Structure formats: structure tokens, C-alpha cells
Amino acid sequence: MTHNKIIFRSLIVLFFFAVNVNAQEVLTIENAVKIALENNYEIKIASNNSLISKTNVTSGNAGMLPKATATIVDNNGIQNLSQTRADGTVTTLNNGKSSNLNYGVGLDWTIFDGFKMFAKLDQLKELQKLGEAQLKMTIITKISDVNATYFDLVQQQQQLAALDTTIVISNQRLNLAQNRFSIGKASKLEVLNAQVDLNTDKVALLRQKELYANTKIVLNQILARDVKTDFNVVDSITVDSTLLLPQLTELAEKQNPQLEAQIINRKVVELQLKQIKGTRYPTVRLNTGYNFSESQSSLGFTTESSARGLNYGFSASLNLFDGFAQNRNEQIAKIQIDNSKLAFDQQNEQLYSQLATSYQTYMTNLELIDLEEKNEAIANQNLNITLDKFKIGTITTLEFRTAQLNYVNAKVRYSNAQFQAKLSEIALKELAGTISF
Predict the structure, then answer these.
(1) Could you confirm whether the keyword Membrane appears in this record (predicted)?
(2) Which single residue of 102, 191, 300, 308 could bond 293 by disulfide (Cβ 3.0 to 4.6 Å)?
């Protein structure tokens, strides 16, 4: 059998593998990301948290608006009463009834609190931005997870095809060994070795199928859908080889969600210091209300009274001394600002370091793709030559098996090089905040 027939049989295996793929749902990376954005629990939770932060941004929550309250109090009593007057007269009453009814509406409005309310509103707005940054961070992380798991499946699918091909070759070797044994040109040992190697290849295929099925479950879990959902992925990995470190660094400085969160955190603690300093100023409140009261008593100089009307006024308070708590709170707030600056600098340096190391890995993996592609072509050519020699008996079965394994390993390494390069691309785009939604 010529090497052209080997290629033909391999193509048949790949054809039936492709038919099996087409019989199932072919999940594209775009659809996987879309499903994750719609279903993923962590994204939903982060989205709800962002909505809470947005809902909190109101003037009322900052303390700018007045508070109106309505009250009603109705007290009643039955008592045995005794009164002794100045002239010595004693008056008693058993089971005397009394009642006191008060109701009305009141309005209380803080019109000045040392500008704390304005700082509070600005802080709520920054917290809203922080919630949005955290949502973006969660989305980018989940999209990165989807991409990594998806392309892991692609490379595993490629390895399944490679193992299918090597089983075809091992079957050919076994048939050749059996034919040669039947005509007395080979020993039984050669047949047994061929059978053992074929079984070894089948075991490797089963292990790869197990890993492929388990990774499908992991991806379904990330997509928050039934883990038993069956699907296939595309059969190739395309790596973006145009990424440049200066452009990635510039984008990361503007779009990296972790860096953005540190900037917002700094603004939040600065506004917290503003609110604390506002306590040094007086607080002025306006109050008004309309009340009605009615009281009845079975014993006393006044047995019944009622009143209704408007009341209004204002109050002002100023903290003169609070045990140095004001100074202590301001000092703590300033330290928190320093910590936020340090956290930003730390995050910045960490980002530059991650970009530099990830980019170096990315460039190395691009070179490995070219090298492993050439190695695969060489290993394929070597296998074809070795098979021709094996058929005419000029090489041993060990040499043939070595060439066969070299071919399979070369295909696996080429697939893995593509996958590792794709992981580097994903990591760089995640750091730059540009991974596609």
C-alpha cells in the first residue's frame, strides 16, 4: 500500500469525523460568548450589583431632600384617682377614664451640613462607576474563560482526529504483519507487537474522548446550560498574530477594568474625607408641621382640651469637642487615600509586568507554531517513507512504530502550539480590556 493510500484512508477517517461533527450542533465561539452573556450566573449577579449601585444614586439618598412624616398617638386609661387640693379637700374617683389623642404631619429638612450631602452624592456616582467597572471585569473574565475552554476543545478535537489517523495506520500495520506471518515472512512476535501497539492507540483514543467529553461539561457549566447538552466546535484555531505591545499597553491604561476600579476607589476615599471634614461646619435644619391634639380626663381642673395649628422653626448645631474623634477620623481617611494611591501604583506595575511577560510568551508561541507546522510535515514525510520500507522488510517494527509515534506527537504538538498561542492572545486582550463581547 503506497503512502497515497494512507493519505486516502486518513481522509476517509477525517470525512466521517466531519460528518459526525455536522450531525451535532456546531457551536461557534461567537454563539458561546452570547450564551454566556445571557446565562452565566456570575455575570447576572454582577449585573444586579451594578443595578443596585445605580439605584442608590439619588438626591434623597445623599440627604439633600426633606423628610416628611405623619404621626398619630392615641393613649387611653382607666384609673382609680385621688386628688388633695390646697384647701384640704380630697376628691376621689374610681374607674376614671382618660384619653389623649395627637396626630399631625411634620417636615424636617437639613439645608446645610458642611457640604457633606454634595460629597455624598458624588461618592454615590463614583460607586455606580465602580459597580460598572466590576461588571465589566466579570464579563471580560467570563469571556476569557469561554474562549480558553472553547479553544481547548478545538485542540482536543484535532487530537482526536490525529489519534483516529494513527489507529488507521496501526490497523494497516497489523494486517501487513498477519499477511507476512501467513506466508512465513514474519514471526508471530511481530503480529503480537502490532496488536499491542494497536490496543495502546485505542486506549489513548478512549482517554482523549473522555477528556473531550469532560471539557464539554465544563464549557456547558460556564454557559449555565444543561451540562448534558451535546455539541461540537470548529475544527481550526486562528491566532491573531498582529498584536503589538505598545498598542496593548496604551489600551490597557485606558480600558483595563482592574486599573479603572483602582482609580475609582481612590476618588471614593477622597470624597469620604470631604464628608468627614464637613462635620467641622454647623448643621442647619428647618422644621415645620401641623398637629392636632385632644385630651379628656374624668377628674381635674380641666376635663377636656383640644388644640390644632402650625408649628415651625429651625435648629443649628456645631460640634465643639468630641474627644478628638474628628481629627482621628480625618487622619484615618488620609491614610486610606494613601493606601488607594499605593494600590493604584501596585496595580499599574502588575499590569505592565503581566503585559510584558504575556507578550513574550505570545511571541514565542507564534514562533513555535511555524516550527511545529514544519515538524509535522517532516514527520508525515518520514512516516510515508518508513511505511514503504516496512512493507518490503528493510526496517524493523520498532523503527516503524517510532516513526508512527513521531508523526502523532508532531500533530499533537502543532495543535498544542496553536492552542497555547491562542491562550496568549486571549490573555493579552483580557489585560488590554479589548476581548470581544
Answers:
(1) yes
(2) 102
pTM of the model: 0.82
Helix (H) / strand (E) containing 83? strand 67-84
Determine if residue 321 is left, alpha or beta; phi over 0 gives left, psi from -120 to 50 gives alpha, anything else beta.
Answer: beta
What's the average model confidence in pLDDT over 213-221?
Answer: 96
Three-state DSSP state, 90 = strand
CA distance 325 to 331: 10
What letter represents residue 236's amino acid? S
In tens, the pLDDT along 65-87 reads: 999 999 999 888 887 777 777 77
Domain 3-39+113-282+320-432 has CATH 1.20.1600.10: yes
Residue with the three cell numbers 398637629: 291
Give tens-digit pLDDT for 127-164: 999 999 999 999 999 999 999 999 999 999 999 999 99
User: What residues are paired with 153 via a beta bridge?
Assistant: none
Per-domain residue ranges of the chain: 3-39+113-282+320-432
Task: Kindly report, residue by residue over 274-315, the tens digit of the pLDDT.
Answer: 999 999 999 999 999 999 988 877 666 566 788 888 999 999
Q: Which is more confidently placed, 10 or 273?
A: 273
Q: What span, in angstroms and rounded, lies between the C-alpha atoms of 227 and 216?
A: 8
Averaged pLDDT, 25-39: 93
Q: At what angle do helices 3-23 and 116-182 cross, to 10 degrees?
A: 140
Grid coordinates representing 247? 498598542
C-alpha cell at 224: 449555565
SS3 187: coil
pLDDT over 70 at 19, yes or no: no
CA 186 → CA 181, 232, 383, 384, distances in Å? 5, 43, 21, 21
How many residues in the chain?
437
| Cβ atoms of residues 390 and 404 within 8 Å | no
What's the rounded Cα separation, in Å, for the pair 386 and 403? 7
| Whole-angstrom distance, CA of residue 324 vs CA of residue 287 | 30
Instruction: Provide the angle, in degrees to the nearest 10, between the axes of the packed helices 188-222 and 116-182.
Output: 160
Q: Comparing C-alpha atoms, which of 432, 427, 425, 424 is closest to residue 252?
A: 432
